[in-house]
Amino acid sequence: MTVTSLLQLSDPQAAPLVVFKVGSSLLIGRDGVPRRAWLAALVGEIAQARARGQHVIVVSSGAIALGAARLNLPRGGRASLADAQAAAAVGQIALAGLWAELLAAEGLTAAQLLVTLEDLEDRRRYLNAAATIGRLLKAGAVPVINENDSVATAEIRFGDNDRLAARVAQAARADAVVLLSDIDGLYDRDPRDPAAQMLPLVEGVTEAIHAMATGGSGSGMGSGGMRSKLQAAEIAERAGIALAIINGTHERPFAHALAAGRGTLFLPKRNDTARKAWLGGRQRMRGTLVIDAGCATALKRGFSLLATGITAVEGSFKRGDPVAVSDGEGLVLAQGLAEYDAAEVTRLRGHRSEEHEALLGYAPRSAVVHRDHLVLL
Fold first, then answer.
1. Closest Cα to residue 193, out of 166, 211, 178, 212?
2. pTM of the model as a whole
3. Which residue ranges form the domains of the chain, and what is each CATH number?
4. Measured on CA atoms in the order 74, 80, 81, 83, is the torsion positive or negative?
């Protein structure tokens, strides 16, 4: 049984494991003080979900906002990387304490996990995180997860918790992700336009869907926006996970959205294997392989990526590194793990397999990117 409607998000048969993502602007007031009453009501909803047989994971922002208020830092702690890291170091203690206190009031045990982009990009660390989350859920705890902003830098960070929530859902093999936002859902244009219409159901994120999104956080406090939510939906949909955007500004927002039938639900369009879902959700590519039209057609038919269809090699990568695969117009078609380093692929590109041994001086591998390590986007 899978989630096909908002109401099924509360059904333990359709969604036995749900990830809730809570943004800074919902959890923290503009004065830097936690919105305790609102959060206590949400925790009550989490307790109700647990009581009806659902497991819950929370991905919670708010550490930087909390810490910035306590340290009196400008721009909510986002004036510089150093400010953000310092604010996060102070704020994470307060954030974890807040969740632990309110969950304990409902008889639930909170568990804190801080992760970086690298923790979920590296396969071994990803599996370790998945195992930890699984054990916590089995023990009855509620994992509360946030990006480790005190050590993350611009190059190795998610930058928003929408995509983090989707990656956590992949790792935990969740059934659904609920993004609590400051808007009802996805609109077909700027929601300030009187003619804007909300989309209740999206079956696959397309270029047309991306064109509807506007970036940036409306509150100025968070780091996400509708674009990041669509990217999260793409990560989720490849792993067979439904994702919903609902308005979190109401008291008891989950119950409010379900009762009103108000929100946008993104249906999963396929169910990749766990490894391919992880690979398709990776964000940092080490290079790009540009391919011709014939090669693109072959990939769509399930074939491996061969050197003869490669027209250009970009970036510096080693064997086993993740690479993007794009067409001549710059559209990224796939992601995969390279079987050769960049210099070797440059020598092989455009050449047929029977020529490779002479070019390399050793027996070649079967493909530049094998289909078992390739994910179409």
1. 212
2. 0.84
3. 6-278 (3.40.1160.10), 285-376 (2.30.130.10)
4. negative
